[in-house]
């Protein structure tokens, strides 16, 4: 555990103690305001290519358990924390936080003034940075072509989960395990398919509904698949979560833009426009659908963020397509919107074949 640095492309250098894997790592430096749930956050594939700063000052105090990973292995680029607790206290803890990072090949920096770092990100907007034993700003260059992060985290093979309820195809852009868990809890049979699976292959699986998952990166990087995404959503009851929401909006001609520093945390209030109720949601996104780009004759806006009024949900006026920018599966975070996954499954069950019978 030697001295290490986070060097931002804007020139600021933050000193700390290196933890986890011993390699240098470059990434987009973002922050998450959740007070708990660090295990779920570091294993959420939507963070691929990013260095997460935890705003909560103590990380590692309840260790790492055998149940709460959101993916097989973390795919984020690094972690920045304030106080690292190396003596976890929880009956289910099997590893220390730093051991988890090391085994996953992810470097981290502890003992950092995370409050100052978050203020810096908030003033510049999201910036690239490098974690290294050497504070050299020249290292902060995005080398070569931007990787297609979704390609790195999406499944390579189709996976089947049998069950006696409706059959959902989960299009995997880097899905969180708790989305699968929520579907299985509703008795759904689930088939997980790679992100580039075309309509014809999905049709051959004969699903009752399709779920477009969360995932990393800029949704526009997936533009070549928009026509297939549109076709799939026009043929099956559809739910889009986070990246899935953005992709569906884009596939129907809307636009997305990058937020200054994103929404990442477990306390983001969204208003359900139909009822006026405010729900507290888990969020992790850097992009949003641009308001003026929505075709109001095609989509209704269903949810808006209470803090910045950004679009948090859409519903198609004709097809049974619903999308949400936040995470109804939460994990970590409040379960105020868990009903969205349940309602999706109920809607599929009640729609049956009727809606598409004419085809
Ligand atoms: N959690 C997600 O699906 C994130 C979506 C997208 N990568 C964004 O940052 O906006």
Automatic annotation (TrEMBL):
The keyword Ligase applies. The keyword Nucleotide-binding applies. GO terms for molecular function: ATP binding; carbamoyl-phosphate synthase (glutamine-hydrolyzing) activity; glutaminase activity. Residues 2-132 form the Carbamoyl-phosphate synthase small subunit N-terminal domain. Its EC number is 6.3.5.5. Pfam families: CPSase_sm_chain, GATase. Residues 1-166 are annotated as: CPSase. Gene3D superfamilies: 3.40.50.880, Carbamoyl-phosphate synthase small subunit, N-terminal domain. The active site is at residues 242, 327, 329. It catalyses: L-glutamine + H2O = L-glutamate + NH4(+); hydrogencarbonate + L-glutamine + 2 ATP + H2O = carbamoyl phosphate + L-glutamate + 2 ADP + phosphate + 2 H(+). Keywords: Amino-acid biosynthesis, Arginine biosynthesis, ATP-binding, Glutamine amidotransferase, Ligase, Nucleotide-binding, Pyrimidine biosynthesis. Belongs to the CarA family. This is Carbamoyl phosphate synthase small chain. It comes from Neobacillus massiliamazoniensis. The gene is carA.
């Amino acid at each position: 555990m030697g001295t290490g640095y986070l060097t931002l492309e804007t020139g600021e250098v933050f000193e700390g103690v290196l933890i986890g894997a011993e390699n240098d790592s470059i990434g987009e430096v973002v922050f998450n305001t959740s007070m708990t749930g660090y295990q779920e956050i570091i294993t959420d594939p939507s963070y691929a290519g990013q260095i997460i700063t935890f705003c909560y000052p103590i990380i590692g105090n309840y260790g790492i358990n055998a149940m709460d990973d959101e993916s097989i292995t973390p795919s984020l680029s690094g972690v920045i924390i304030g106080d690292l607790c190396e003596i976890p206290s929880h009956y289910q803890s099997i590893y220390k936080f730093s051991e988890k990072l090391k085994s996953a090949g992810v470097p981290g920096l502890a003992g950092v003034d995370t409050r100052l770092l978050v203020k810096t990100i908030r003033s510049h907007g999201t910036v690239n940075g490098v974690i290294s034993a050497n504070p050299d700003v020249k290292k902060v260059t995005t080398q070569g072509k931007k990787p297609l992060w979704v390609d790195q985290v999406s499944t390579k093979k189709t996976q089947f989960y049998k069950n006696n309820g409706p059959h959902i195809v989960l299009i995997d852009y880097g899905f969180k395990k708790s989305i699968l868990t929520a579907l299985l809890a509703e008795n759904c049979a689930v088939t997980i398919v790679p992100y580039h699976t075309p309509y014809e292959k999905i049709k051959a699986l004969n699903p009752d509904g399709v779920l477009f998952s969360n995932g990393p990166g800029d949704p526009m990087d997936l533009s070549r698949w928009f026509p297939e995404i549109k076709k799939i959503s026009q043929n099956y009851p559809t739910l889009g979560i986070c990246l899935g929401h953005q992709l569906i909006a884009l596939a129907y001609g809307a636009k997305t833009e990058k937020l200054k520093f994103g929404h990442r945390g477990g306390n983001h209030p969204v208003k359900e426009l139909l009822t006026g109720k405010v729900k507290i949601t888990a969020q992790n996104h850097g992009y949003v659908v641009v308001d003026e780009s929505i075709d109001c004759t095609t989509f209704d806006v269903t949810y808006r963020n209470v803090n910045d009024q950004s679009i948090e949900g859409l519903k198609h006026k004709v097809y049974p397509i619903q999308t949400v920018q936040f995470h109804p599966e939460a994990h970590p975070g409040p379960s105020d919107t868990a009903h969205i996954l349940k309602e999706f499954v109920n809607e599929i069950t009640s729609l049956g074949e009727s809606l598409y019978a004419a085809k």
